[in-house]
Amino acid sequence: MNIEPGLSTSNRKIDPARRRATHLFRPDGSPIDPDRIEIGPTDTAFAEWAALGLDIPNLDRMRRFRLDRTVAEINRRGYGGVLLFDPLNIRYASDSSNMHVWIAHNPARAVFVGADGHMVLWDYKRCEHLSAHLPLIGDIRSGAGLFYFVAGDRADDLAAGFAAEVADLMDAHGNGSRRIAVDKMELHGAAALAARGLQIGSGQEVMEHARLIKGDDEIAAMRCAIATCEIAMAAMEKACTPGIAETELWAILHAENIARGGEWIETRILSSGPRTNPWFQEAGPRRLQAGDLLAFDTDLIGPYGMCCDMSRTWFVGDGEPTAEQREAYAIAHDHVMTNMDLLRPGVTFSELSHLAQPLPEAYRAQRYGVVMHGVGLCDEFPSIYYREDFIEGAFDYPLEPGMVLCVECYAGKVGGRDGVKLEDQVLITETGFENLSSYPFDARLLG
Predict the structure, then answer these.
(1) How do residues 26-36 score in pLDDT, each as one tens digit?
(2) Per-residue DSSP letter, 373
(3) 94 or 3, greater pLDDT
(4) Which end of the chain has the lower number of beta carbons within 10 A, N or C?
């Protein structure tokens, strides 16, 4: 990869014809053009979604909804703008995508959104063409890479130049405010902003609250992504037989997701047999044996960048589960279903922690980190902790229609051989909730 540090340039020399190379469009509004620059779902995905009768999101409308929510949260907190380096926040505000996983640890991209809605993207050098189809981005530049790999011993100089640009944008688009929200940034970059007289606040707070409520098109995109994830899960389950390696099984989920225009998988949490207890072991070379449990957490970023965070546990082979395996499965299933029934508008995050069903004592020590959590482009705010782990005053917000939560449970005894992981993805509606997950539970384990 050719790394070229340099100061920003405000230059968007892109052929306007490249924005829309055809007058024929897919259901989501993207052009039917195999040479298009923008990423998106494949023909296979669109055909499967049509067969399932799913609504397709309108991308232009979804982008406007997200920008409007971002601007509303900026103004609600009295900021003049928000500066974003987290690739998921960049994706939310702009729908711009470029090497997300690499950028997550090499922050060479940034987005500024002003209180008036003006948006500027700093992309990796000579990548302006990647966002040419996104009209909500007012300007594309480069020069936000302030980390040592690209800046070397000139990091302070580059940070000063970048901060000068941000300060000018705040003057022009910040409605007179000198308060700027920043989600994450190199320390010398933050110091350079402060030297310009800007007061830095939490961009993570701004963006987590912006992302909290999903619009109709986001829900449609999530339904499509979940359908793709469940199709991939079915391919996994078909191959889940004695002799296959954990890594081989995990590769199926990834391959089926990518083949349909999905994007990546955040973790690789899949384990079998004695590796299911304790939890969080990632896929390794172990080969499945008859009588094992196979448990996994998808953590999948599917088409449209939407997260599908679901867990299932399957019995391997043709035999019958043990009493211990069935007990753990029954506890996990009951835990998820009972806690899901608590979901309705108006219940606060804090109340959910105290109302949630506790695990039996024998399973409590190895409880999962949360009872449920938000989800959108990835795992998102809030975290609903068990009452034992509750943080007073951290989550005093109510459930609202349009929020999406993943309700989950891990059930495994300390020192036990087997553990069970289950998780469903749930939409809060005007009257209660809708379970967006439809993948069946293992009938032999549910018994």
Answers:
(1) 999 999 988 88
(2) E
(3) 94
(4) N
Query: How far is 34 from 63, CA to CA, in rounded Å?
Result: 22
Q: Which DSSP letter does residue 281 get?
A: P
410 in Cβ contact with 420 (< 8 Å):
yes
CA pair distance 152, 138, nearest whole angstrom: 30
C-alpha dihedral sign at 242, 246, 247, 253: positive
- Distance CA(95)–CA(127), nearest Å, equals 15
The torsion of the CA quartet 376, 281, 312, 431, rounded to 10 degrees, works out to -30
Separation CA 238–CA 443 (nearest Å)? 15
Find out whether 197 and 213 touch, Cβ atoms under 8 Å: no
Closest CA to 354 of 407, 391, 408, 400: 391
Q: How far apart are CA 31 and CA 24, in angstroms?
A: 6
pLDDT digit string, tens, across residues 147-204:
999 999 999 999 999 999 999 999 999 999 999 999 999 999 999 999 999 999 999 9
| Eight-class DSSP state of 431 | S
What distance in Å separates the CA atoms of residue 161 and residue 319, rounded to the nearest whole number?
Answer: 67
**Preceding omega of 274 cis (within 30 degrees of 0):** no
Distance CA 233, CA 421 (A): 15
265 in Cβ contact with 254 (< 8 Å): yes
Model pTM score: 0.93
How many CB atoms are closer than 10 A to CB 387? Answer: 12
Edge-to-edge strand ranges of the sheet holding 307-308: 264-265, 300-301, 307-308
User: Is the pLDDT confidence value at 231 over 60?
Assistant: yes
- What whole-number distance in Å separates Cα of residue 221 and Cα of residue 210? 17
Helix (H) or strand (E) holding 176: none
Per-residue confidence (pLDDT) for residue 36, from 0 to 100: 86
Cα-only R_g, the chain? 23
Lowest pLDDT segment from 8-17, 372-381, 400-409: 8-17
CB atoms within 10 A of CB 59: 22
